[in-house]
Target: tRNA (guanine-N(7)-)-methyltransferase
Amino acid sequence: MSIDHPQRPHRNFYGRFKGKHLKQSQKTYLDEDLAALSPGAVDWETNPERTNLDLDGLFGGRPVWLEIGFGGGEHLVHQAANNPDVGIIGAEPYINGVAMLLGKIRRANADNLAVHPGDARDLFDVLPDQSISKAFLLYPDPWPKTRHHRRRFVTQEHLVPLARVLKPGAIFRVATDIEDYVRQTLEEVPKAGFQWLAERPTDWREPWDDWISTRYEQKALREDRVPHYLTFRRQG
Ligand SMILES: C[S@@+](CC[C@H](N)C(=O)[O-])C[C@H]1O[C@@H](n2cnc3c(N)ncnc32)[C@H](O)[C@@H]1O
Model:
């Protein structure tokens, strides 16, 4: 990944771009399907002017949702298949996860999806202001050590551009199994212009009605960690 455009901000990314060996079928999905699922020019190399994406052209004027860090893509495909009247963009830098998603898209035959195989912050740059109706941040990397908390997604570096691209009244869902991540989320997300919508404990203890459990959540449950489901509304 080249980073030599003069205006390109330095963005630390501490996750993984590539993990274990890709299966031949996954390489085929990446070669054959990924380009056609592009939301448009997101990367600095192809869009140094940071021109906005044409979301109406992409999804025919449908409302647009966004999933940040979709992992293996089970939730993204589930939402796309159950909501054909919306378009959904997923961002995920981990190419093995992207390949897993592409296999699921083939099987689901969904056509209302776009995939940015990279950092959500690069996508925020080129999303028009107030263009997204719903966003999902499901089991973001926990970064448990105190000195690493500033690497978490729920910091103003990520939340301010997210707030800018969300429509007033848009819903932002966060799921996490880490109690200290709940604390930081409840402190930081409202500062960026969101209201937490919980009225009673079941609102954060029970999953959303349209939920499908993700790979990471299944691992958390096996290890006796407790999911929390936080729902915010973009104010304005
Ligand atoms: C713990 S995993 C959870 C994956 C999935 N949401 C699930 O619940 O199974 C967190 C994911 O966020 C991705 N991620 C981390 N930083 C990101 C960023 N800046 N933009 C997009 N995705 C990111 C990671 O690559 C990783 O796949």
Remarks:
- Strands lie at 64-68, 87-91, 113-116, 132-138, 166-176, 194-196, 228-234.
- The chain has one domain: 24-234.
